[in-house]
Amino acid sequence: MTKNDTFLKDIEAGLSQNPKYISSHYFYDKAGDELFQQIMEMPEYYLTNSELEIFSQQSEAIIESFQINPDEEFELIELGAGDGKKTLHLLKTLLEKSYRFKFIPVDISHNSLAVITERMEDLFPDLEIDPQQGDYFQVLDELFTSDRPKVILFIGSNLGNMQDEVARSFLHKIADHLKPNEKLLLGVDQIKSKDIVLPAYNDAAGITRDFNLNLLKRINRELGADFDLENFEHDPEYTEEEGIAKSFLKSTKKQSVYIKELGKSFEFAENELIHTEISRKYNDTILQNLIDDSMLEITHKFLDSKKYFADYILTK
Ligand code: AVJ
Question: Where does the record place the Histidine-specific methyltransferase SAM-dependent domain (predicted)?
Answer without folding.
Answer: 9-315
